[in-house]
Every structure is written in structure tokens, then in C-alpha cells.
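**User:** Once you have settled down, spend some time on the protein underneath, comparing sequence with C-alpha cells, and judge whether sequence predicts the C-alpha cells.
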Amino acid sequence: MSRRNEMITLKLMDIRRLLNGRLVSGSENMDIHDAIIFHQHKLKKSHTLVFMDKRKAISEKKWKRMLRNAPCAVITDHDQDAVNGDEGLTIIQVGNVREAFMKFVTDYRKICSLPIVAITGTCGKTTTREMLTHIMEENHSVTSTEWNDNAPHRSFEYLMKINESTDFGIFETGLGGPGDLRYHCKVYQPDIGVITNIGSYHLDRCKTFEGYLAAKAEMLEGLQNKGTLLLNADDPNISKISLEEYKGTVHYFSIHKHSDFRGTSISISEEGTRFILQANGKEYPAFIPEIGEHHVYNGLAALRAAMELGEDIETGIRRLSSFKNIERHFELCKGRNGSIIIDDTWNVNPTSLREAIKTLSIIGKGKKRVALLGNIERLGAESKDVHKQIGKYVVEFGIDVLITYGKKAQYIAEQAAMESQDIIVHPFTSIKGMDKTILNHLDEDTYVLVKCRAGSRPLMRLRKRLMESE
């Protein structure tokens, strides 16, 4: 269904009273159509409420943009002489702008009392959110994260797109370090939380895996001990999160372990993935036009969340069957010399890389399987060990040719060569010569997995050259 992406119109006078603010200059007789944080967001329209923190420098460029879009209203804890009441600007002073901001957010969520789903996990967030949105938007108005633009500073912008016509909010909550998920949840105040999986990642800020696990567990706090938590029962790291003090409802989904929402009889092909959903004492045949067991987990999480939002299983399964593959998510393309290129360059972390290698092994069975892998970033002190573990996975899943690019990825190549003499390994730290080496391995019986982060420009350009250009 179509949706109007703007906040509910509010009266500035009511906002000032809510925040116990003092009118310094300008008029409070104004309708507010949008709200932003001055140092985080771009002001796009007039009649915008702007939260300005005295702990942050005032950008002259942003201030001029605000003047061009006047009238606007500023909520600030700056001293009165630090912010000028220029023509068209209303200045309202509060004791602590951060407290005022959270009070505004809480009040807005009370006005918009619709169900909100927050989705987190090391990987699968974007696909799960896209699947759930696809299921629900057939008959409902849904506000959702755009692509994987899920950083904490975006959460307030998404919240401000919810209005009277919105039925559900479905958001993925990205995590770069401790406190990020807590902030997301303070803004969204979700009713349903989903954790898809937890693997090693973001150790640059979380420092240790235990720190990363604790950061993911902030979801429980975010649900305020009263929401519904949906967990992957097969994930060994999720099981490490203590639920002793959690007073909300917990439901599990799984493939291997027993649960009340389980995917079985999985069949993977180039067309997609079929499975049987066991739920409510019944069996439901299901199909997802996505390749790999990991997408069954994403589908299960989406279907279970849809149930919590009131959708029936049959409708959810029907909608999943028409789900469109997200670009660069294990996307099969024609390649040079008649080969098949598997473009999985949306992102890379150890969990998603392992699943990609596993899926390459399955769909390329009986063919030559080539893995072209780049560095995995944000692993901190564990980087070397994690890359070596990937080298073991490459051999375990029977990959025939391994080509790596980057100094960190060299550890993948070194470990794979140590594990087996049967695998052909080509490590590169320069892009020079890689084209020729790869082309020598490409023919009609070859599947090539390209897995790297989108920011790796040399590999992204190489990936493009490998695709059929005739």
C-alpha cells in the first residue's frame, strides 16, 4: 500500500509545554511538519523542529540552510547569546536538550501507538526486514528502513516518517558498538524484537566477542521486559544471552533444533529454496526465491514476526514466494567464458561468508567451485584468527579454487593451503594480474563466488569485469 512519509503535524506551543521550554524569541504559533537533530540530519523543509545540543559545534552551513528553510523552531540548551533569533526562527530553551529529545520521542510514540518491530543480528537483518515488509505491505501501510541504512542516527528520521496512516513500523537496528542498539530502542520503543544470529563482528569498538554479545543483548532492555522476543534457537551464541530477568514473551524459530516454528526438508536450487514449515501442529510447504539455508532462517523470522502482527501463515508464505531478491545478495549472473558469477558483495562478515561458501558448495556440486574473497574488516585483535578459520571453511566445503585479495585475506589463503593440497590457492595483495588468473579458471562448468564489502573498489570493479559483457 502507498504511504505518506511525513510525521504527524504537531503544534509548537504544545511541544514547548511538553518540554517545559522557555520561549526566547520568535513565535510558538507554528505547525511542525518534521523534526531533526541539528548535528546529525539534513534539514529538508520549513516548519521543522530542530534539536540543537550545546555539546556540539554549530555548523554555519547548516544554520544558513535552516534560515533558507524558515520558519523553523530550535529546541536547545545553548546559552541565549549562542543562538540568534534570526527572522523566521523560533528559539526555545530547555535545561537539557538530550532529555528534552527523549521526552519528545516518548510522547510521539504514545501518539503513534502502532506496533514496531526491531530487527538485529550479525547478518540477515536487511533480508528479514525486507521479507517482513513485503509480507505486510500487501494490506497495510508500513514504514521501514531504507535498504540497509540502519545506523543509530537514522532511527529518529525513520520514526518521523510514521503518521496516522501507518499501520506498522519495521526497522533494522544496526550496531557498531556498545549503546547503539540501546539508542535505537529508546527511539523506536519496539513491541517486537528479532535477533537473527550472532557471530564475530564489530570487534573494533566492542573489543571482545563478549562485548559484542552484550551489545546485541541490549535488545532485551529495549523491549522494556514486556515485548515479544523472537530468537534463532539454532544459534549457539544467542543461547548465551541470559533470559532469567526478561519478563516479556519469547518465541523461537529453528531448522535443526525443535521449536514451535521450524523449517524442515530444505531443498536448494538456482531457482530458490523450498522447505516445510512446521507450526501450530501443521505442515506448510513454502518457497523463497532466495538461495541458501540462511534464507530459510530469514524467512522463518519474517513469518513468525508477521504472525505477531496478526498475519496468517498461509498469507505470509504466499507473499514470500513473490519476494524479489535484493541486489548483490547471492545474485546469480552470467559470467565470462560461460561461467556463473555469484555476486554476494552486499557486505561481508564471518557469519555471512561462511554461509556463502556453504551455499556455493551446494549449488555448484559437480562443477568447479571458485571463491574470490576480500578482507573482512572490523574484527579487531581477532582478525588473524577469524580469517584463518575462514580458510578452514573453504576446505571443509570442498571449494576447488580460492583467490584472495588483501593482506588480511592472505590468512584465508595460507590456512586453506595448509589444510589441503587439493585446493588451488592464489593469494593477491595487488589487483594486478588477478583478471588473467581468474579467467584461466572460468568455463561453462564454473561457479564463482565473489564476496567482499561494497567499499572494496578494486574487487568491485573486477567483479564487474567478470560478468558477461557480450
Summary: Residues 128 and 298 are 5 Å apart (CA to CA). The chain has a mean pLDDT of 95. Residues 293-308 form the longest helix (16 residues).
